[in-house]
Amino acid sequence: MSNLTIHAFHRILYGWIATFSITLCMSPPNPPAPPSEQQRFNSWERSLGNHIYVVPAVTKLAFWFVWLLETTALIARQFPWTKPIAEPTLSLFVQNPLSSLNAIRVTPVFLAGSVLAAIGGYIRYRCYEELGRLFTYELTIRKNHKLVTDGMYSFVRHPSYTGGILAFTGYMMTAFTQGSWLRESGALETFVGKAFAYATLLLASSTYVYSVFRVRTEDRILRAEFGAQWDEWAKRVPYRLVPYIY
């Protein structure tokens, strides 16, 4: 197997793993909480309505579309007979789309990003499993709510946010850095490419800041609901997002 073939295989495999991981993190495991469970919390998030579901849904489609384009480019490099199909498709977004095919490659940053994304996706999935029906996007205390303190929640108190941050960071390291189709093809120099990059950066930054403030709110709500049980958990698990740091 040639080096080009190996690079193409790894780019496709690890890129799709990273994209699947961030998609998992942006997919709610349960339906929206009913208004009756949200009314006790005067959160500004309630004013967002369905936007907390629409934005992730649109973002996921965009992320998958980007990796579909990179996969198309890599397939065209490995199988020249597909170029008559790939070239007109990719030329909708960049000029001379096939001129940079050999520059798409695996880099250390790409590998690190795919690992981060996979770890983040796994953490988030475990949180979905461990919280079950209690996991909602909205601030809620559900009927027969219980405080989950084992599994991922024995390392930090809000691991689902940790997973989301890792996956988002990892995805950006795979999609936007040197060796990626977005960068090597010149797509990031186009209006659409720049808009996508800035929108992704804005969404990622908002996610990071939001997570820091959201976990404080959740701690306050859980402490008010569970009292001494929460205090014992917080003493045993003192960190919110990152062990020994925060």
Automatic annotation (TrEMBL):
Membrane-topology annotation of the record: Multi-pass membrane protein
Domain of life where this protein originates: Eukaryota
Keywords, in A-Z order: Endoplasmic reticulum, Membrane, Methyltransferase, S-adenosyl-L-methionine, Transferase, Transmembrane, Transmembrane helix
EC class of the enzyme, as a word: transferase
Enzyme Commission designation: 2.1.1.100
An MF annotation (GO) of this entry: protein C-terminal S-isoprenylcysteine carboxyl O-methyltransferase activity
Transmembrane segments: 50-69, 161-183, 195-213
A biological process from GO: methylation
Annotated GO CC locations: endoplasmic reticulum membrane
Known catalytic reactions: [protein]-C-terminal S-[(2E,6E)-farnesyl]-L-cysteine + S-adenosyl-L-methionine = [protein]-C-terminal S-[(2E,6E)-farnesyl]-L-cysteine methyl ester + S-adenosyl-L-homocysteine
Subcellular location: Endoplasmic reticulum membrane; Membrane
Family label: Belongs to the class VI-like SAM-binding methyltransferase superfamily. Isoprenylcysteine carboxyl methyltransferase family.
Annotated protein name in UniProt: Protein-S-isoprenylcysteine O-methyltransferase
Species annotation: Jaapia argillacea MUCL 33604
